[in-house]
Inverse folding.
């Protein structure tokens, strides 16, 4: 057993990029995964912020009951087959829409985390802003959103990694090799190594290394926000 290889070689990377792009292309897998991620970053996180603000700072009748109802909602795994049936009848299976559309409605786990964080923000800030004439949307974008940025960044990192590593949904809905995400391609590559249709394990290791680079960059760039969020939670606790 050797900790470091005796000879430095990029053979695995060379073989990885030598496959027929029409059958396997890790760059296309990266592109398709980023399209999936973009639907979350551009839409879902803002929906979660709006929902979190509504539960945290808006007093309405039945707020606690509505929050409890959302917390004990139906698990996603139970709705998997009905959701697939709906997308199949709409003719959307084989496209990106089944992966993108659910993100338009937010994720309540993220919204609940942000609601707990926003609830600790001083109400005096929102009351003073309201007295200055700032409306509901202004309170969200100018006060709640900036002050909740550490918690938002933490959830962005966690959800980004969750979507990045998602295998079940892309494998269910994406049929074309042109649309397959990174994890689906890694699985097909792993199956090829297991069946010896691919020459050697270094090819799979090279693909896994490339797949891990974006998540490592994201974590390192957002590490300060993660530490600040944990520190703030510890102080409030």
């Amino acid at each position: 057993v050797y900790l470091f290889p005796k000879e430095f070689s990029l053979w695995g990377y060379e073989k990885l990029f030598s496959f027929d792009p029409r059958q396997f292309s890790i760059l296309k897998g990266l592109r398709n995964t980023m399209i999936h991620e973009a639907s979350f970053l551009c839409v879902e996180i803002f929906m979660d912020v709006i929902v979190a603000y509504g539960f945290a700072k808006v007093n309405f009748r039945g707020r606690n009951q509505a929050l409890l109802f959302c917390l004990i909602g139906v698990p996603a795994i139970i709705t998997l087959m009905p959701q697939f049936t709906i997308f199949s009848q709409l003719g959307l299976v084989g496209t990106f829409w089944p992966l993108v559309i659910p993100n338009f409605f937010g994720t309540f786990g993220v919204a609940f985390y942000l609601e707990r964080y926003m609830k600790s923000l001083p109400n005096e800030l929102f009351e003073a802003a309201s007295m200055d004439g700032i409306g509901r949307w202004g309170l969200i974008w100018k006060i709640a959103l900036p002050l909740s940025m550490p918690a938002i960044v933490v959830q962005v990192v966690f959800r980004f990694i969750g979507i990045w590593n998602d295998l079940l949904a892309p494998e269910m809905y994406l049929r074309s090799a042109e649309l397959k995400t990174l994890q689906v391609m890694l699985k097909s590559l792993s199956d090829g190594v297991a069946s010896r249709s691919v020459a050697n394990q270094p090819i799979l290791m090279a693909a896994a290394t490339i797949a891990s680079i974006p998540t490592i960059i994201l974590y390192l760039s957002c590490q300060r926000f993660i530490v600040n969020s944990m520190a703030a939670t510890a102080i409030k606790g």
